[in-house]
Specification:
- This protein has helices spanning 17-30, 96-106, 117-128, 153-174, 189-197, 212-224, 261-273, 293-311, 346-353; strands spanning 4-9, 34-38, 51-54, 81-84, 90-93, 110-115, 133-137, 177-182, 202-204, 230-235, 277-281, 317-322, 325-330.
- By secondary structure, the chain is α/β, with parallel strands linked by helices.
- Strand 12 (317-322) and strand 13 form a beta hairpin.
- The longest helix has 22 residues, at 153-174.
- Bound molecules: 6-O-phosphono-beta-D-fructofuranose.
- 6-O-phosphono-beta-D-fructofuranose (F6P) binds at residues 12, 74, 116, 139-141, 183-185, 236, 258, 287.
């Protein structure tokens, strides 16, 4: 049976998105199906041309390209779409019925939703509105529940690791405290994995609220051994014990923007130790550029697996990697959930065993 497939890339981009789009497009074409990419996320659904037709030519040579050829948006939730009111202020409205109608008008049989937790929450709601959805897990944060790994994470930790390596040599030369802030929202996967790999001295993650006393003790212990510098990796969502998450505010229809914890930690540690400190916020460097080999391959596998789901009419599933096997879980089963780092995990134990201070 010929199918018409729509592909959406929602939320923040991640290295590997284009590889997933390519695999899904080629696998669908191989079956004689038509593929339509949604331009710039669901927000484009109001425009005259919400879709871009994808064929083998359109996806040639994009496996190694960062970003998404479809475009994306962090304000594309069809259930809370931001708009400007007549008085100039912003508000949100539910445009999901319009989205459902557009899918009907174009004869779309199934939606491949490539996204993070926010996109999967949207997908759950679209499923309840009768849309056939197959999900592909994407986010550099690696925090989607039920997934061992998400596409984009491997590249992000490779970039962060290299950056921390480089910052370490200048920290050592200047005998400074260096605080590197990495992304990850409310989970510490990027901080923990890149921090361990780059031999950071202190790693602060949201899962373990930190105390300055514990970090100062580590700095002093290093000084006593003649190591005048300390490398501190802090996740953007890390919190001080009894403290609050540091944010840059929230715009209507968007997620709260995290950031600023590195400056706060650096200032406090300089005040307490008298040592000079500097901060580096890696920011979107972690999301840009070419995907790693691992991310290319997992993205291609996820994209092709999504089309196999459609072929089997096994809708409303998220294709995931669990115990190194590709499998499928119901999208609605992970609604509102998040994958945090388990404090019993061997990775956390490894950090402790090799002397890394986790701030507790
Ligand atoms: O979810 C991916 C992510 O990169 C987070 O780690 C980060 O907090 C957020 O997106 C940044 O979003 P934006 O691109 O809107 O600044």
């Amino acid at each position: 049976m010929t199918m018409k497939i729509a592909i959406n890339t929602g939320g923040g981009d991640a290295p590997g998105l284009n590889a997933a789009i390519r695999a899904a497009t080629l696998a669908a074409h191989k079956r004689g199906w038509e593929v339509y990419g949604i331009k710039n996320g669901y927000g484009s659904i109001y425009t005259d041309e919400p879709f871009i037709k994808l064929d083998a030519d359109m996806v040639r040579g994009i496996t190694m390209q960062g970003g998404t050829i479809l475009g994306t948006a962090n304000r594309g939730n069809p259930f809370e779409m931001p708009y400007k009111k007549k008085d100039g202020t912003m508000d949100t409205k539910d445009v999901s019925e319009h989205l459902v109608q557009t899918f009907k008008d174009y004869g779309i049989d199934a939606l491949i939703a490539i996204g993070g937790d926010g996109s999967m929450n949207i997908a759950s709601k679209l499923i309840r509105k009768g849309i056939n959805v197959v999900g592909v897990p994407k986010t550099i944060d690696n925090d989607i529940y039920g997934c061992d790994v998400t596409l984009g994470f491997d590249t992000a930790i490779s970039i962060a690791t290299e950056a921390i390596d480089r910052i370490t040599t200048t920290a050592e030369s200047h005998h400074r405290l260096m605080v590197v802030e990495v992304m990850g929202r409310y989970a510490g996967w990027i901080a923990l994995y890149s921090g361990i790999a780059a031999s950071a001295d202190v790693i602060l993650i949201p899962e373990i609220p930190f105390s300055y006393d514990s970090i100062v003790e580590k700095i002093k212990e290093r000084e006593a051994k003649g190591r005048g510098y300390t490398m501190i990796v802090v996740a953007e969502g890390a919190i001080e014990k009894d403290g609050d998450i540091v944010t840059k505010g929230k715009k209507v229809g968007q997620q709260v923007q995290l950031g600023g914890i590195a400056d706060r930690v650096a200032n406090e540690l300089s005040n307490r130790t008298g040592k000079e400190s500097r901060t580096v916020v890696l920011g979107h460097l972690q999301r840009g550029g070419s995907p790693s080999t691992y991310d290319r391959l997992i993205s291609l596998r996820f994209g092709a697996a999504a089309i196999r789901c459609v072929q089997e009419h096994d809708f409303n599933k998220l294709v995931v990697l669990q115990d190194n096997q590709l499998t499928r879980i119901p999208i609605t089963s992970i609604e509102g959930k998040m994958k945090s780092i388990s404090l019993d995990s061997d990775t956390v134990q490894t950090a402790r065993d090799i002397g890394i201070c986790l701030g507790d």
